[in-house]
Amino acid sequence: MKNVFSLTRRTLALSSVAVLVATGVAAPLQAQAQSRKDTVTLGMILEPTSLDPTMAPAAAIGEVVHYNILEGLTKINVDGSISPLLAESWKMDADGKAYTFKLRRGVKFSDGAPFDSAAVKFSFERAKDAKSTNKAKGAVFNNISHISTPDAHTVVLVLSNPDGNFLFRMGENTAVILHPDSAANAATKPVGTGPYKLDSWAKGSAVTLSKWDGFRDAASVKVKKVTFRFINDSAAQVAALLAGDIDGMPRFQSPQSLKQFQSDKRFVVEMGSTAGKGIMTINNRKKPFDDVRVRRALSHAVDKKAFIDGVFEGLAKPIGSHMAPTDAGYVELSNTYAYDPEKAKALLKEAGVQTPLNVTLTLPPPPYARRGGEILAAQLAKVGIVAKIENVEWAQWLGGTFKGNFDLTVINHVEPLDYMAYANPQYYWGYDSKAFRDLAAKHAATTAAKERTQLFGDMQRMIAKDAVNVFLFNATNTAVYRKGLKGLWSSSPIFANDMSAVSWQ
Question: Secretion signal: which residues (predicted)?
Fold first, then answer.
């Protein structure tokens, strides 16, 4: 009954939109766009719980502030390439352990404070601090053994171990530069060197940014006001686009509605790649999931193709470990655990698990989780695992599930190259493997490209062998936006919306 009611509400919402369009309410969309050449409203699925990406883990933070308010030394472009940003150039020593960055001159924070090497040193030491909650602390900042500032425009970073991804890491939102005078308030009042300033944050509704006229290249920024509206319901996303309430959804998650927009000349639909790894996370600390046989049973119980077809209309690729197919060094492991309910039952029996096994499947708001959770629960039921669905809001997921209070959950880890989370026993899924930590340390200390690639593959295979999680999908990035809007990213190598490059044609 619950499923029928949900579908009925969704159908009614879409039907209402169709009536509005038919009666002409949504007809003046092109006129609306033409009348606001300097404003853009975008839809987002999740609302950030903070606006400081250096201290909070949610990827939604970067969608609002990264490249708009806050900037880093390097920039990750839509194709995944690296270019200068706050650093105008850099040099790496032959051993790969020391980087010298020459900083861009004449840059200021929007509160008037100068950007200099002291701000970089402060930001990275803050990220390294014992009390830091920066999600890249372990993988990136703890590896920085020494920071020196020979002058106001030079920073030297010395690493304990070479990191072939270091310049990419410097372009992630965890490495944005904050000023000591304003960093403490960045969660609600971020101050950065980017082209926009925070205008307002209406909790539960939207964040609005205004163009900062003091930006070093203000003349190139065409959009004066950007609003990010939070819409996690698929039907509501469709309705907002058709009614002209939003100009685009950079990460549209209603594949069932794509044909409608592809056939509508008022809209553009673009598809690209992502760094996302969609997984059914398993709490490795809790019984019976601390037994690898049970985790393998869960993997055999899930039909990835049926999940992808049912949730994404086929617009995703199956994965078998915690890497995306676009990542260099990716190993194809999606068939490690073939869909085999009988094998799953046998493994549960071998592990001494009495069925039915009652578990809780906690689902955050994104449509892939809510829709996908229903599919997973049905599949698990076939092997004797009764998954009680618990729908939670995003803040609840971050405050409970992400703290380790769960049995199973569904989430898309969108951060690129975040495999080092498996070397942290305190991470929310609780994987505690000395063998993996030793392998990760060996990989970090190795400079030979061929050996690094081999070790990288070994790490992926170990994660798969240990069935840490049920690895499901790498989703296609789908952007839907109004015709005439230019510059939105079609792919998501990271979760960001670079509004400085956006304009109306």
Answer: 1-33
Q: Are residues 240 and 263 in the same domain?
A: yes
Cα–Cα distance measured from residue 119 to residue 505, given in angstroms and rounded to the nearest whole number:
37
Any domain includes 56: no
Helix (H) or strand (E) holding 377: helix 367-381
CB–CB of 413/422 below 8 Å?
A: no
Q: How far is CA 367 from CA 10, 111, 332, 383, in A?
A: 12, 39, 26, 25
Q: Tell whether 174 and 153 lie within a shared domain.
A: yes
Give the structural domain span for 467.
Answer: 277-475
Could you state, in chain order, the average pLDDT of each consecutive group of 10 residues for the chain (505 residues)? 34 39 45 68 96 95 98 96 98 94 98 97 98 94 97 97 93 97 97 98 97 97 98 95 97 93 97 97 98 98 98 97 94 98 98 98 97 98 98 96 98 94 97 97 88 96 98 97 96 96 95
Question: Do 162 and 113 have their domain in common?
Answer: yes
pTM above 0.90, yes or no: no
Nearest to 111 by CA among 208, 218, 215, 219: 215
Domain presence at residue 155: yes
Q: Are residues 368 and 405 in the same domain?
A: yes
- Residues 303-338 as b or e (16 or more Cβ within 10 Å = b): bbeebbebbbeebbbbbbbbbbebbebbbebbebbe
Q: What distance in Å separates the CA atoms of residue 452 and residue 455, rounded to the nearest whole number?
A: 5
